[in-house]
Structures are given as structure tokens and as C-alpha cells.
Amino acid sequence: MNWFTKTSYPEFWNTYSKHFKNKQETDLGSIRFVVFDTETTGLNPNQDRILSIGTVGIFQNTIKVSDSFECYLKQDLFKAETVKIHGLLKGGKNIKIDEKTAIIQFLEHIKNSVLVAHNASFDVTMINKALKRLELPKLKNIVLDTKNIFNKTNLDKTTKTNFSLDELSERFKIPQHDRHTASGDAFITALLFVKLISHLKKEKKITLNDIKSPKERIGLL
Question: Which residues contact 116 (CB under 8 A, 6 or more apart)?
């Protein structure tokens, strides 16, 4: 079935899509941002699968811990060699749900929020691959990448443009608690995002358009 020609979708997708009837605000103070991260079985979107999704909301440049989401997925594909990175066992104590349920819950949580991630193209692609397996279109949300936002600050005077989350966390003195868990990385990225926006605001008034990532660079892996 062609990914782009299906016209009949399940109710949860229709509900999600309805949130995009109105144009997104551009004033940063009026936007709900959802910072998210995925832990996966590997780095190949065509073969690997999502193990967990973690999010935290930001509104008016304030991290809203109460506005968060976390889920763990059943590991139909298990790679023992990646456990040392994410720490997620095939069994374990975490309650796990199937991929479809995880995607439904994720869409219900994010609605039409502006998504934020570090190296966002990978996380967006992993979500889009899951949507494709459900015969659904790609995410509709605007996506920001903290890596690209940092480059807009001109704080680094070298020619380097690809900074890791570890590098930027160290630069901005952000504690790396729960690193390599989806929720932990989402919170670290949220702290980074708030710091970057605060820095950019010192130079001039900025809107969503000033911090958008190039469209062609998001979710095309």
C-alpha cells in the first residue's frame, strides 16, 4: 500500500490531525513545546525498532515536568549488544506495550505541539517508520533540533557544526542524570533548549521562524 495515497485512517489519527486545522503560533511564549527522545535497538531506521519514548513539555520557557510522557515498548527485536547503552532488558520490571499502543499514546500527548530533539532527524525518522508500519502518514508537527539552534547562537568560533548532546551539556554545565534513557535525555535536551532560547533572546526578539530547522534535514534518514 502506498504510504501517501490511503484516504481512510483510524480515529486516533483523525483526532491527531484535527489539531493542525489552525496555523501554529509563531510567538514563542504562546507555543507548547514537547522535547522528546527515543531509545532504540540500533541506529538503522530500516531495521531497528523503538525501545522507549520519553518527553517533557515546555511552556513560556519553563520546563513542565508534570507535562511528560514515558513508555517502554515490547522488544520483538532484541540486540543484547545495545543493552549496555540504554540498559533496557527484553524482560525487566518496566511495563511494556506494543508499538501501536505506544504511537497512539505519543500522538495523544504531543497533539500539535512543536517537537524538539537533539539530532532530531533520527528520532523523527524512527517515529515515522513506526507510523509507516501502521500504514499512516508522517508526523505533522513542526520539529526543532537543538543542534541546529546552537549553531544559530554563534557561540562556537570553530568551523564545527555537529555537536553531540554530551558536548553541549558540558558546555552549558547541564548535569547528565539518566543519560541514555529516553526520559533522561529528553530532560537534558529540554534544559539545553531553554538555555539556548534564553541566549538568543538576549540578542534580539525571536520567533518560531528564527529557530526552525531546515525542513529537508528533519526525518529524511
Answer: 33, 34, 35, 36, 58, 143, 144, 145, 146, 189, 190, 193
CA 60 to chain centre: 19
- Which pLDDT tens digit goes with each residue over 24-52? 999 999 999 999 999 999 999 999 999 99
Query: Comparing C-alpha atoms, which of 26, 58, 54, 56 is closest to residue 194?
Result: 58
Pairing type for strands 50-59 and 32-40 reads antiparallel
- Cell numbers 521562524: residue: 209
For 129, half-sphere exposure in the C-beta direction (CA atoms, 13 angstrom radius) is 19
Task: Give CA–CA dist 190/195, Å, rounded.
Answer: 9
Grid coordinates given for 45? 531506521
Q: What is the CATH number of domain 29-217?
A: 3.30.420.10
Q: Please give the pLDDT value at position 99.
A: 97
Geometric angle at alpha carbon 118, from 114 and 120, rounded to 5°: 60
Placement of cell 499514546 in the chain: 105
Distance CA 194, CA 205 (A): 15
Do 192 and 166 form a contact (C-beta atoms < 8 A)?
A: no
> What pTM does this model have?
0.88
55-113 tens-digit pLDDT: 999 999 999 999 999 999 998 755 555 544 444 445 556 789 999 999 999 999 999 99
